[in-house]
Amino acid sequence: MKKNMLITGSILGLLAVIFGAFGAHGLKESLTPEALNSFETGVRYQMYHALLMLLAAASFSLSQKALKALFYLLLSGILLFSGSIYLLTTRPLTGIDISAIAWVTPIGGALLIAGWALLVFNFIRFTK
């Protein structure tokens, strides 16, 4: 599980840098300031949670069960939260309209919160 988290966290971090550069340079002229700000929020949250995934896999003393749960909470949270923000903000360019299922954005956020709560719970229980 640690190797999967390290690889996935690295890929998500790489993509966050690419999306951030694309947003700053490629979308600057095409999106409204509000849409660009939302896009950047998606990038920021993706990077924060990619780094958390890397840190958790590399250094935290979590059980395999906790690592697996954290992995799936963070991955699904990033996909739903950041992914939906990317699609919602770039709709004028892509023509992809997911406004009917925009409710997945807060679900993704709730999954990210659950990942942090899982860490808090495990750290409180942590004994060496």
TrEMBL record:
The keyword Cytoplasm does not apply. Keywords: Membrane, Transmembrane, Transmembrane helix. It comes from the Bacteria. It is found in: Membrane. One of its GO terms (cellular component) is plasma membrane. It is a multi-pass membrane protein. The chain crosses the membrane at residues 47-63, 70-88, 100-124. InterPro entries: DUF423. Pfam families: DUF423. Belongs to the UPF0382 family. This is DUF423 domain-containing protein. It comes from Leeuwenhoekiella nanhaiensis.
